[in-house]
Design brief:
alpha+beta, two-stranded antiparallel sheet, about 230 residues, Chorismate lyase, elongated, Arc Repressor Mutant, subunit A
């Protein structure tokens, strides 16, 4: 490839970045320097650097020069479907029962995730069904500072999760997946044996910098999480 064309210069600079000639975040030579080195015009170098910026190899700032960015990696995004979707996509009928709903002071672990301190939050326990059989049991805390309208929300046939998705779309979240043993109460709610192994999901979501909700979800034994990447 001709090293004096913008494609050739782009390939040459990319190869030098991959080889580690400049560290991540380090300024690389300017357009004038590259133009002199490769014997071409600054316009040609500009096109090459702009193409590298679009690839995610470098970051360009007006009057700030061009810096190496971390090499782009394939990004896998996990979308957790609504429980209603999970049930109905399997051909079964969905419904949910809110068995506890109150305003209370969260325990320390939930308060830390929500950033509520001594402030009270909404607490819910919800049992989700598939064809009238228990499917999952959910405990959830909702920050009333972030979502004050939830205090007066009529859920009807909606779960708190569906209501939040429709009302306050989150901008980021953290998910932890683990196995847990069913205690006596959860085993009774899920109609399974005490000490049965349960697929468990903990999730906290934010709206910008405000924590919205933190929850724990226990699925009945035999559940498999499937998702595209």
């Amino acid at each position: 490839m001709n090293a004096r064309t913008h494609r050739g210069i782009r390939a040459a600079i990319r190869a030098r970045i991959v080889a580690g000639e400049w560290q991540l975040g380090e300024l690389i030579p300017g357009e004038a320097d590259f133009a002199q080195e490769y014997g071409c015009s600054r316009t040609t170098v500009n096109r090459a650097l702009q193409a590298l910026a679009e690839e995610g190899m470098v970051e360009r700032k007006r009057k700030g020069g061009t810096r190496v960015r971390p090499l782009p990696l394939p990004q896998a995004q996990l979308r957790i479907p609504l429980l209603r979707e999970q049930v109905e996509e399997s051909g079964r009928a969905y419904r949910c029962d809110t068995i506890v709903r109150r305003v209370a002071r969260p325990p320390q672990s939930a308060a830390e995730r929500l950033g509520t301190g001594e402030t009270e939050a909404a607490y819910l326990e919800t049992l989700h069904f598939a064809d009238e059989r228990p499917f999952a049991f959910e405990t959830r805390w909702i920050s009333l500072a972030a979502v004050p309208q939830f205090a007066e929300a009529e859920l009807g046939e909606l779960s708190a999760n569906e209501w939040l998705v429709r009302t306050v779309p989150f901008t980021r979240g953290e998910v932890a997946l683990s196995a847990a043993t069913a205690g006596e109460r959860i085993a009774g709610l899920l109609d399974t044996q005490q000490d049965a192994a349960l697929f468990t999901m903990d999730r906290t979501t934010w709206l910008e910098d405000r924590p919205v909700t933190t929850m724990r979800l226990h699925y009945t034994p035999g559940y498999t999480l499937e998702f595209p990447i």
